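Hi all, long-time lurker, first post. I run a small reading group and we've been trying to get comfortable going from sequence to structure in the token notation. Rather than ask abstract questions, I figured I'd post a concrete chain and ask someone more experienced to write out its structure so we can walk through it together at our next meeting. Sequence below, copied exactly:
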Amino acid sequence: DETTEKYPTIKLNHLRTLTDDMGCIQFAKLSTPDSTSGYTVDDNSRALIVSTLHDKIYNSETSKELSKIYLDFLEKVQDKDGKFNDLQCEREDLIPSSEDSIGRTMWALGYLIHNSKNQEFIEKAKKLFDRSYNLIGKISSPRAKAFSIIGLYYYYKRYPNEEMLSKIKEMV
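-- Answer (accepted) --
Happy to help. Here is the structure in token form:
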């Protein structure tokens, strides 16, 4: 495949080090994860994009395992209204995340929906995306809107429908 020939091999060593059974840890001291820093929606969404892309290019068991962890994290921290919350180190204290984090999460979920071949992951990402869809119209941050539009675009590429296309046009 020309994609893998064009670029250096992408290694997930450090991302794997930052990831435990809960998700991607927010901070590290040099190369050692700082588990007291907790877990953010933003970091786990970014990590989901990386692991999805890595799996698309390399069909890697490691990237599949990481994608599952990040998806499970997003499912755990999504409330009934579709909002996502950061998680303190105690793994119990939820803290509301920013609009940027919500937008980036919609991007990550849409990206996975369009690019993954794992039907279980796609269905879970779609469920999370659909639950948060109503939040997109309430976003005021231009950057969060841009992230959301990217997510809507990828979702639309997998599941084309008029409502999604109208939402994209409305936000542009």
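A couple of things your group might point at:
The beta strands are 25-29, 32-39, 85-87, 94-96.
The radius of gyration is 16 Å.
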